[in-house]
Amino acid sequence: MKQTYKHALKQAMGLGAVAGLRATVAPAVASNYLSKHPNTALASSKLKFIQSPLTSIITKVLSAAEISGDKLPSAPNRIVLPQITARVASGALVGATIFVANRESLLKGALIGGASALAATFASFYARKYLDTLPHVQDAVVGAVEDSFAIGSGVKLIKS
Questions:
Q1: Which among 51, 56, 60, 50 has a CA at the least distance from the CA of 25?
Q2: Pick from 69, 32, 67, 73: which is nearest to 145 by CA?
Q3: DSSP H helical segments within 22-133, as ranges?
């Protein structure tokens, strides 16, 4: 397996998992980075919009809204169909973006990113459920740690 493919695979899987934690964070991180470091392979693809400074701003605003909205008591579980769909679509978008940027298959990247998002959605849901049963563990703290982890790991992955 060539090195660029391994790198693309790692990034697509990792950012897909980030999308499983927070649907909008993965595209926001990718768009922010790519708007400052445009990729020539993306410039001639249907995914060129992800490099736009406007897309970067919009995805950051959406991320802030998602993170804030998730703190509300009325926030739905991440494993209801609309939430799963958004997370998988987000993971597929970033996976496709990473693969196209590395001159690999858009479809393969979308499938890898989407599958990773799906797995992380369920894993994080059940991890949160378990942590909620532990004494002295506050849901707001767990949520803040999850947010920080999603943003931090997303930034680290996209910069690698």
A1: 60
A2: 67
A3: 25-36, 40-43, 53-69, 81-101, 106-133
* Residue pair 150/17 in contact by the 8 Å Cβ criterion: no
For 80, the token pair is: 């209801």
Q: How many CB atoms lie within 10 A of CB 108?
A: 16
DSSP letter (8 states) at residue 22: -
What angle separates helix 106-133 from helix 139-159, to the nearest 10 degrees?
Answer: 150
Q: How confident is the model at residue 1 (pLDDT cuts 50, 70, 90)?
A: low
Separation of first and last alpha carbons in the chain? 18
User: What are the backbone angles phi and psi of residue 41, rounded to the nearest 5°?
Assistant: -65, -35
Domain ranges of the chain: 3-69+80-159
Taking only the tens place, the pLDDT of each residue in 32-81 is: 999 999 999 999 999 999 999 999 999 999 999 999 988 888 888 899 99
